[in-house]
Amino acid sequence: MDTLLIVTTGGTIDKIYFDDKSDYQIGDPQIGMILRELGVAFRFTIIPILRKDSLHITESDRELIRATVAAQPMRHVLVTHGTDTMVQTAQVLAQIPDKTIVLTGALSPARFRGSDAEFNIGCAIGAVQCLPAGVYIAMNGRIWDPHRVRKNIEANRFEAID
């Protein structure tokens, strides 16, 4: 992997909470700080294109994400995304040939102690380096085919579908 392209779209991974009533906004992308703190041994470029909860991502936003990824020369791509509509975005990105694209996010903000953000990012980085061209989701310690997974909102985790 020469340089990893990271495209950020917002989601829980980048949320900042302001009060006990769960008032929040999407803050600056956390992934760059996380990777620098961990001292990773590869180059990466971050393109922040959205700061949205994934429930507010529109079809035109998905097209912007697709066009951004397709326009870059990097073959290895990590997309941080909210978990509620990650599957839909992954399916749109499947139109892009000859790239390995992994989407990941978090079920609690990266700023929170005990967040799954760092683990999911690490899993996604391992996956993007090892998998063949295609689109994948890295969540809950597993790599998923976006056509065979869904988010179980009640259990707050991803699970296989038939």
From TrEMBL:
InterPro entries: Asp/glu_Ase-like_sf, Asparaginase/glutaminase-like, L-asparaginase_N, L-asparaginase_N_sf. Gene3D superfamilies: L-asparaginase, N-terminal domain. Substrate binds at residues 54, 83-84. It comes from the Bacteria. Residues 4-160 form the L-asparaginase N-terminal domain. The active site is at residue 12. GO terms for molecular function: asparaginase activity. This is Asparaginase. It comes from Thermomonas hydrothermalis.
